[in-house]
Amino acid sequence: MEGGQRDNVFLLLLFSLLSSGLSSLYFSVLDQCLKNPPKPQYDGGIVVNPELNSGREGWTPFGSTKIETISKKGNKYIAAFHRQQPFDSFSQQFYLQKEMLYTFSAWLQVSRGQAEIAAMFKAPPYFISAGSVTAQSGCWSMLKGGLYVNSSGPAELYFESHNTTVGILADSISLQPFTQEEWKSHQDLSIEKARKSKVKIQAIDGQGKPLANVTVNITQKKPDFPFGCAMNERILTNTDFQNWFTPRFKLTTFENEMKWYFTENSPGRENYTIPDAMLQFAKEHNISVRGHTVFWDDPRYNNDWVKSLPPNELSLVADRRMNSIMNRYSGHVVHWDVVNENLHFSFLESKLGENASAVYYLKAQQLDGKATLFLNEYNTIEEMGDEASTPTKYLEKIREIQSKGYQGSLGIGLEGHFRTPNLPYIRAAIDQLAIAGSPIWLTELDVESSPNQASFLMSNVTRFNLNLSFILG
Ligand SMILES: *[C@@H]1O[C@H](CO)[C@@H](O)[C@H](O)[C@H]1NC(C)=O
Ligand SMILES: *[C@@H]1O[C@H](CO)[C@@H](O)[C@H](O)[C@H]1NC(C)=O
Ligand SMILES: *[C@@H]1O[C@H](CO)[C@@H](O)[C@H](O)[C@H]1NC(C)=O
Ligand SMILES: *[C@@H]1O[C@H](CO)[C@@H](O)[C@H](O)[C@H]1NC(C)=O
Ligand SMILES: *[C@@H]1O[C@H](CO)[C@@H](O)[C@H](O)[C@H]1NC(C)=O
Ligand SMILES: *[C@@H]1O[C@H](CO)[C@@H](O)[C@H](O)[C@H]1NC(C)=O
Ligand SMILES: *[C@@H]1O[C@H](CO)[C@@H](O)[C@H](O)[C@H]1NC(C)=O
Ligand SMILES: *[C@@H]1O[C@H](CO)[C@@H](O)[C@H](O)[C@H]1NC(C)=O
Ligand SMILES: CC(=O)N[C@H]1CO[C@H](CO)[C@@H](O)[C@@H]1O
């Protein structure tokens, strides 16, 4: 700061919210199953008869099922029973416009037990998922999602559950279009609220007396926001890479160099030369490191010698692996991905029992009580159609691990390998994940090559994440 001539100034500084400080009305209801559904968001937006108060107006059967509207204790809703195909449900026609961003929500129930229900749009030649939720019987669960289309045209909303033995019930359905400009201005409002705070600066003289009318010049030396980038072993020898990397990033993940297949390529012969040197390099430049990853549940990324072991031997070498890497780097990394991609895969569970992840998270906590332990998954925010890792499944996995003996907190790692970023869906998915009250990090980030790649990356995803409280690591 330098003195000059102007009054004391109030400045807005950007700051980062590390753990999910986000709160909004939705979060309190998203995870609950309610006796009565709340009013539809945005009064239903462009949905005709969103609360089903006007009989079946706007709604038609989809597939081969019959639909009915039901009135129970003053609440009216729509239902499809006796379903034969996953898509047998009720539907409504819309005309969706390219370039618009659509938020979608609905309150859903099943006739018995519980089942996953997806909101689908038939927009020939595509079937587009707008999100899904695990619905229960006897109470209403909120499905919060969103979509965009890449060409304007008619689209038919319907609901889908692969479990055809349950009836689907729906109420308070909402589809609200936003223009890109509206979306950006909403982002800006969130930025004002969530990412800025007022700072009072007082310029004083040598005796501590306030100075009138000074100009204060503030220069940012380094970002406080934990904005990071992966590095690989080439950083050790390539000075251009070093010079580009070090002033920009506060955080890093090693691409492969901490992975089990890398550090113990043949049984018992560990070699940490490269990750040690990379850690040292990061330390010298004040760059924090995420520990990635103790284990990887995808069998393809385990060495053949590991895969060939019988369970009792695998259990021994897995313990040895965990002790080895965690004792070596505990205190030197800020996070650990413990069992990478355990929503999509179950290599350890298949060999060691269904509580394997829980067991290793518990052990990890004992080995490093300071670093945050993370799950790390793909397609939770990238692909609406991947049922293995929906936000609901992610939350269920966290609860499952916690119910099997690991009591600590779990960070939510989102890999962010995008084809075309679907902003309304990304937002809805992250809102839903925020229920867990855990830190949410975008741990990896890339956008598939296309003419819009740079713009998707910079103006859509990075802006989205930088300006809300989520993080690139
Ligand atoms: C379908 O859902 C019912 C109710 O939750 C459950 O009892 C049944 O096992 C499910 N069927 C399948 C194939 O998942
Ligand atoms: C258009 O959208 C559909 C449905 O989401 C998708 O499958 C397709 O790849 C998209 N096409 C282009 C050119 O982005
Ligand atoms: C503050 O400085 C500006 C120009 O730098 C001058 O016009 C103004 O009169 C000053 N105000 C006071 C209260 O000194
Ligand atoms: C503020 O300080 C920086 C760094 O000393 C300098 O480059 C810049 O020109 C200054 N800006 C003003 C408006 O004085
Ligand atoms: C460990 O790895 C380094 C870097 O690849 C290599 O130079 C060294 O020879 C290895 N050590 C052993 C004992 O294999
Ligand atoms: C790293 O941080 C320390 C303590 O804040 C500081 O003294 C040092 O200059 C920093 N080093 C680099 C390379 O930024
Ligand atoms: C987890 O599995 C192990 C091995 O099968 C077993 O010893 C342990 O009791 C299980 N723990 C829980 C909480 O189920
Ligand atoms: C996202 O990127 C697309 C493609 O460049 C651009 O047209 C659009 O305005 C961006 N949307 C937002 C909300 O940043
Ligand atoms: C990366 C990015 O888009 N940052 C934006 C965050 O919000 C502020 C205030 O609206 C913009 O000035 C930044 O460009």
TrEMBL record:
GO terms for biological process: polysaccharide catabolic process. The keyword NADP does not apply. Residues 219-473 form the GH10 domain. Pfam families: Glyco_hydro_10. The keyword Zinc does not apply. Residues 1-23 form the signal peptide. It comes from the Eukaryota. InterPro entries: Galactose-bd-like_sf, GH, GH10, GH10_dom. This is GH10 domain-containing protein.
